[in-house]
Fold this protein.
Amino acid sequence: MGVIVKIAVEKSFYYLACKKCKRKVTEEEGKYYCKNCNVTTDNCDVSYMFSMRVEDGTGGIWISAVGETAAKILNKPAEEVKREKDAGGNWQRIFNQQRNKVHTA
């Protein structure tokens, strides 16, 4: 059991992911290339990747949250949060709502 005291999203909180293998893709001329699968596609997934500080009363640690595990913590799909950020909305509130909440594994 631990409490999230900070989620670091200053740089970014997501990456563009291959729909097949979930690894990072690169965007090239409106298409997405997965080096792992060696394939170029018209679309990709948006996946979470961020760090957070978790404390449990005896100490704290920085951990990484990625993909579906991160989505469970935030209770929102990464695509939805990215859309809100791109539209200039208050996307940070989604991360701030998790601060000081108790989470279990």
The first strand starts at residue 2 and ends at 8. Strands lie at 2-8, 14-17, 26-28, 31-34, 39-41, 45-55, 60-66, 102-103. The chain has a mean pLDDT of 92. The two ends are 7 Å apart (CA to CA).
